[in-house]
Structures are given as structure tokens and as C-alpha cells.
Amino acid sequence: MFLTAILFVSVTLLVLKLFRLATHWNDKGIPHESFLEALHRSLWKNTVRNPFDNYDDAVRKHGRIFGSYRGLSAVLVVSELNAAKEVFIKQFPNFYQRTFDIPVGDKLWDNLPGTLPHDDWKVVRSLLGYSFTASKLKGMIPKFDRIAKRSVAHLEKIARTTENEIILNRSIKAYALDSVVAAAFGVDLESEDNPNSPFIKHASDLFNPSFGTYLFMFAPRLLKYCPFAGFPPKATSEFFNKFGKRILDEKRANLDQTIKNGTADILDNLLIAQREDPSSIITDDVLTSQAFIFYLGGVDTTVVTLEMTTFFMTIHPEVQDKVVEEIEQVMGNRDQVEYDDVQKMKYLDATIQESLRFYPISFLIDRFCNKDTTVAGVPIKTGTIVEVPIRSMHFDPELFPEPEKFMPERFLKETSQDGAVQGILTFGEGPKNCVGRRLATMNVQVLLANMLRKIKLEACEATPKSLKLKGGMNFTNVSEKPLVLRVTPYRGMMGLLLIGASVTALAALWGIYGDADLSTLIAHNIWHNRRNKYRGKVIWITGASSGIGEEVAYAFARLGCKIVISGTRIAELERVRNKCEMLSSECRVKILCGDISDTKRHPEWLQEVTDAFGEVHVLVNNAGRSQRSNFEKIPETIERELFDVNVFSVMSLTRVVVARWLEKDLRDREILVTSSTAGKIGAPLSATYCASKHALHGFFEGLRSELSCREFPMRISLACPGPVRSNIRVSAYTDTVGQQYNMPDTAGQKNLMETARCAQLMVSGLASGLDEMWICRQPVLIVYYLAQYMPSVMRMYLLKLFMNKNTLRVRDGH
């Protein structure tokens, strides 16, 4: 009886609540949807048809300001500029909260800027604003430019083929992900070559429509009490919390050097603020969430902006031509896009703005009323939601005459239409607008400035003449069908001049800028996809705690390999393992900590590897040390120790691994050996080191010949790096037992190759079956060729010309 009474009272209260809600707008004197009409639009129409069109229809039917409903809340829909600005700016204290700015019971989400208490939000917003000053934005442009050039190079390869029709979204997603993560975390994911990056997976999972996303849209306050709803997805939250902790620890350890170098990213700036005031609200959880919001809001925002802008330039080639002309005028003969260049590209910026006017990133901006007030003469009670349908505003003919026409000129100062700039709401308005709006636009401009100088966008049969957006409550606008277009090499006047010049100067350019022999460069730039054969394979890398070995581990990690890393420094090996696992959700890593010269442990280690991952597919013999001293001064004990590390340990481990391959008849296995240019050309003050590397060549050439005679298919690749930016000069032997050379990298060592580049070339060469790779910058590379093909000339004349002093400078990267 008691339960029946409770049930009766509950149902009665619910009915009264629904009745009051359904009649909320009856006496307000404004047009309004019925409760059932709004419910039908929210739960049905927005599922089968995109919300942009549904709101446009509602505005046309009821007017620019009308009443509606969302879930159990009354809604005032505002599609009038002055009323919208009243909510966003004039009455901001009454409307500072967005409907999704509420805790949902998830640590990552609950520490986002908007979800924090209002006073805490002010502190965080102020600190974030510091990351977007002109000086800070200038520092991010080189990162964007480097990543953009990598993405454009990929598109150029496609443009030169007959299969040059691309799905736009797929082609630009890697750039969006890499550039946003680089700006927020300071990490380069290289997603173009790493499609299995967990960042891509979790980005997709987070925005996929689900019960949780619908609950988030219509009754977000219930999410805290409905953990089963899965918003945000538990795996996504755990991934970013774990990743954030790793990145914070690494950045905190290197913060002083980062400040000194002037290379701070968004997370670095927040860490600086945290260190200056440890008692502030900037906890590690808050820091992780701030970086996450840039990922959350940045990746899809960048993809949509690029997708819409490139689509409109494709179907409006005259606009594309004007953009290209402006880029050429601003850039001239320079290749590097700079901050000032972006500021001068007004027509490009206007094209982006006009593209987002047509198809805004999101269909809606809303605010939650936290105090009774009046907007545009309409009384608003606490708890009412104000919705501003963005595209309905963008197609208001009073703000944008001839709104159906694509006219970038409307956003140029000299021809701008009244209200056009003020009426664009893509990134919000008022104190709670998108703090990274300028960064987001610059990010897009940098890619387009690079891309349109090399590639022409053309319509093909599959290119739609107009877009139809996908139905459903998507967080950002999504085309119903993939946007397909054709890319061809750009053939403007500058392009023709460059082609003519490049044909006549190709050999000279290689002589100046080449950083590997021709076969290695071809393998890396044309056959790089062959590296995918290593996916899921077991790779054992020695000397993997730093330098080339570390970067080789990252290269294989991006391919989703099972990696074994060996070294003597456990802390460094753990750091490498953490980054490897971050680079791919498929990558698994095992650490073997020990001295490689302890050859008695080699069979034991091989068994550990086999038990953990199965049979080894690739052995990377990378461990080794260098030496700096006059040949007559180095004692025999040091020479023997150097040979133990560089030669005998390598021979021993190779013997143990290859013997197992022979015993088990495991064919098509591979060995990658890190030798050196010193294994081919002698260098002063390194006689013993050169001897050890020459010995490696002799051993592996002999092994290759023997296995060939036994008709056992196994590939051995010898990589010969030149001067590389690593700690090999720090740990080099001297003529004193126990003393290291301790020569750090300095800014003066301009000719040192970056270890990441060296590792990528090595893995590409291995995948292409190259027996030997020469990897070094000029002038070492040309000396290498002379030593190979004209040895007497090289020794008789070149060394006399350089003498020992200059040879030493070249060897050490000066």
C-alpha cells in the first residue's frame, strides 16, 4: 500500500512537471513549438535528417526568436544577432554556463575548463590565453609547417599517379591529428605512417553517436548517475589520463631546458604556471584535461574546416586561383611559412570564413540561464536554455546579403558587408568563445599555403556539386557521403619554372642536400609502404635506451610491432617503452636490462624473448660505443673492452639468434646492423673504433656469403650512419680507463643528422632489402662516394685538402 502511494505521488508530480513544461511558453507572448513538436524534432527528425536543416526549417516557421523544449527544459531559440550578443556578452554573468559544462562523474571530463567552478574557470582561461599571444603563436607555426610539408609530400605522390582521386576526410585527418597533438602535447605522432595510432581510435570512439551522446545532449545531468551510458567512453578516458601522466612527467623533467630553448607548447606553459604557484588550482588532473580539450575540440574542428574549405575551392576554381595567387605574392621564392605570412593572407582567411559560414563546425551554441532575466524582451527563468542555431544566423540575409552565394569577398575589410564579421559564430562569441580560434585558423592556413603551391584541387565525377550533411546528433558536421576530389601537380608559372630548374639541378641539389645514398632515398620515398610487412612481427633492438636505437624502436612501434628493447639504463628503457606503447595501440614492448657484452646471458635472453612474444623476426644489432684518443695512447684494456662491446657481443648475439633460426628452419628472417661511416672510411682519433666497425663489415659479409651458399634465405642490412645527433660522443672511450669523452651536442654542430631521420631511413632500407645503406649529410656523403668509386683520388687529394683539423670538424658535425 505504501509503495503504491509513493508510485502514485511520483507519477502525479511527473505529470504536473510535464504539464507545466508543456505550457511554459503559452503566456510569454512569443511564437513557440509545442512540446510534442520539439520532442519529435529532437528524437526523430535529428536522427534521420541533419540538425542544420531542421533548425533552419524551425526558424523559417516560427521566426528568429521562438520558444521550444529540450528534454525536461524550456528552450529559447535565438537566431537574431543583437539578442545572441546580449546572451553571450552583455548578460554573460547570467549565461556563463553551457549545457555540457557539468560534471558527469569522469575525472578527465570534470576538469575541463568549462566544467570547473566559474571562479576556477576564470583562472584557467587566463592561463590558457597566455598560450595564444602573438609571440606564442609564432612559436607554433614552425611545428605546423613541418607537419604540413610531410602531409603535402604524401598528397604529391598521389597527385603524380593515375589513381589521384582522394577521399578528402582521410587525407587531411592525419595532419589535423598530428598538428593538434604537437601544439597541445609537443608530440609528433606521424599518423600518416601510423594509421593504428590509439589517438585515431579514441578520437573516433569519443564522437561516435551512442546512447551516452544522446543523454549528453538531452539530459546531461543524468550522466553522473548513469555510468553505464559510457560518456565519455571509459577506455578513452583511461587512455588520456595515462598518456597525460607520462607526458607531464617527461615535460616536467625537461622544463628548464624547454624554457631556455623557447619551445614551450600549451602544456609547458601550464606547467610553468603550476610551478610558479604550487597552491593554485592547476593540479595534474586539471593539466591533463586542458590538453585533452584541445585534442577534443581541435582535431575534428581542423578536419571540418579543411574539408569545407578545400571542397569550396574545388567547386569554385576561380576562388582557388585567387588564393594561390595571394600565397605566391606573399611567399615569393621562400618555402617556410612564417607567422607574418599567415597574417598577410587575407583572401585565404576570408575563404575559410565563408566556407564555415556555409557549413559551421557545429549546428548549435547554447547557454544555461542561472538567474532570472529578460532577453530581447522575453522573460527567462533560471534553468531555461538559450539555443543559437549557427547556420540559421549565417544565412540571415540582413547579415549576409545573397546568403546562398559563395563570396569570400564579404569578409575582406575593403568590401566587407555590414554585420558579416560580427555575425559569424563558428567559434562562439563572448568570454566563453573558443580560446584557440586563432590557432585553429592558422593551423588550417599553414597546410593550405603549403598544399596549394604544390597541388591543384579538381572536381571529378564523384565530387558533389553541393553538400548533403549526415543525419544524427553528431558533435560536428559530417558529409552524408565521402567527399571525393582529384589532386594534380600544380602547374602555375612558378611551378613550371621550378620544374625546369629542378630537372637541370637535380644532381647538384643531391650533392648539397642529400642525406643518404640514392638507393636508400628511393626506398624511403617510393617503397616506404614495404615497412608494413613488419606489423605484428617480433623486433629485438639492442642499445635502445637512446640515440639511433631509441628512434628505431619508435619507427617499429608505429608499425604495431612486438618490440624487445635492450640496454643498461632501466629508467631510459622504461621511458622508451612508454612512448612506444603510446604510438600504437597494437605495439607491445618487453625490456631486457643488461650489459650486451655479457655474452653468457645471450641464450637466456633469447629464451625470455621467445617465451614472451614468440620467434624473433628482426634482430637489430645497434649497441656500441665510440672512441676519441690518439692511437698510440689508448691502452690495450680499452681496445679489448671496445671490441667486446662493438664486435664480440654482436657476433655472439647474432650467432645465438641465427643458430635458432637454422635449427627451427625459420626462413626470411632479417638482421639490421648499425655500423658507421667509420666502417668504410677511417677518421682521425678513432682508429680502434674504425677497426671495430670494419670488423663488423667483415663478419656480416662473411655470414651473408655463408648463408647464401647454404641456400638459407636471410637478409642482412648494414647501415652506415655518419655524424648523428646522439650521445655517442658523450659516452665515447678515451685513453684513460673509466673516463668518457663527454662531448655534448651544441648549437654549432649544424651538420649532425637527427636520429629520427636516420632511423626512418634504416627501417625503409631494411624493408626494401638493401644490403648496405650510407646515411649521412654532406659533405660526408660525397666523400663516401669518392671513397667507394675513386679511393685513390679521395685519399691522395681530398684528405690533403681537408687535413686532420677539418676532417675532425666534419666528423663532429660542424
Automatic annotation (TrEMBL):
<dbReference type="Pfam" id="PF00067">
    <property type="entry name" value="p450"/>
</dbReference>
<dbReference type="InterPro" id="IPR002347">
    <property type="entry name" value="SDR_fam"/>
</dbReference>
<dbReference type="InterPro" id="IPR050705">
    <property type="entry name" value="Cytochrome_P450_3A"/>
</dbReference>
<comment type="function">
    <text>Cytochromes P450 are a group of heme-thiolate monooxygenases. They oxidize a variety of structurally unrelated compounds, including steroids, fatty acids, and xenobiotics.</text>
</comment>
<dbReference type="GO" id="GO:0008395">
    <property type="term" value="F:steroid hydroxylase activity"/>
</dbReference>
<comment type="similarity">
    <text>Belongs to the cytochrome P450 family.</text>
</comment>
<feature type="signal peptide">
    <location>
        <begin position="1"/>
        <end position="22"/>
    </location>
</feature>
<dbReference type="InterPro" id="IPR020904">
    <property type="entry name" value="Sc_DH/Rdtase_CS"/>
</dbReference>
<keyword id="KW-0349">Heme</keyword>
<dbReference type="InterPro" id="IPR036291">
    <property type="entry name" value="NAD(P)-bd_dom_sf"/>
</dbReference>
<dbReference type="InterPro" id="IPR057326">
    <property type="entry name" value="KR_dom"/>
</dbReference>
<protein>
    <submittedName>
        <fullName>Cytochrome P450 3A8</fullName>
    </submittedName>
</protein>
<dbReference type="InterPro" id="IPR036396">
    <property type="entry name" value="Cyt_P450_sf"/>
</dbReference>
<dbReference type="InterPro" id="IPR017972">
    <property type="entry name" value="Cyt_P450_CS"/>
</dbReference>
<keyword id="KW-0492">Microsome</keyword>
<feature type="binding site" description="axial binding residue">
    <location>
        <position position="434"/>
    </location>
    <ligand>
        <name>heme</name>
    </ligand>
</feature>
<keyword id="KW-0503">Monooxygenase</keyword>
<dbReference type="GO" id="GO:0005506">
    <property type="term" value="F:iron ion binding"/>
</dbReference>
<keyword id="KW-0256">Endoplasmic reticulum</keyword>
<keyword id="KW-0408">Iron</keyword>
<dbReference type="GO" id="GO:0005789">
    <property type="term" value="C:endoplasmic reticulum membrane"/>
</dbReference>
<keyword id="KW-0560">Oxidoreductase</keyword>
<keyword id="KW-0479">Metal-binding</keyword>
<dbReference type="InterPro" id="IPR002401">
    <property type="entry name" value="Cyt_P450_E_grp-I"/>
</dbReference>
<dbReference type="Pfam" id="PF00106">
    <property type="entry name" value="adh_short"/>
</dbReference>
<keyword id="KW-0732">Signal</keyword>
<dbReference type="GO" id="GO:0016705">
    <property type="term" value="F:oxidoreductase activity, acting on paired donors, with incorporation or reduction of molecular oxygen"/>
</dbReference>
<dbReference type="InterPro" id="IPR001128">
    <property type="entry name" value="Cyt_P450"/>
</dbReference>
<feature type="domain" description="Ketoreductase">
    <location>
        <begin position="537"/>
        <end position="727"/>
    </location>
</feature>
<dbReference type="GO" id="GO:0006629">
    <property type="term" value="P:lipid metabolic process"/>
</dbReference>
<dbReference type="GO" id="GO:0020037">
    <property type="term" value="F:heme binding"/>
</dbReference>
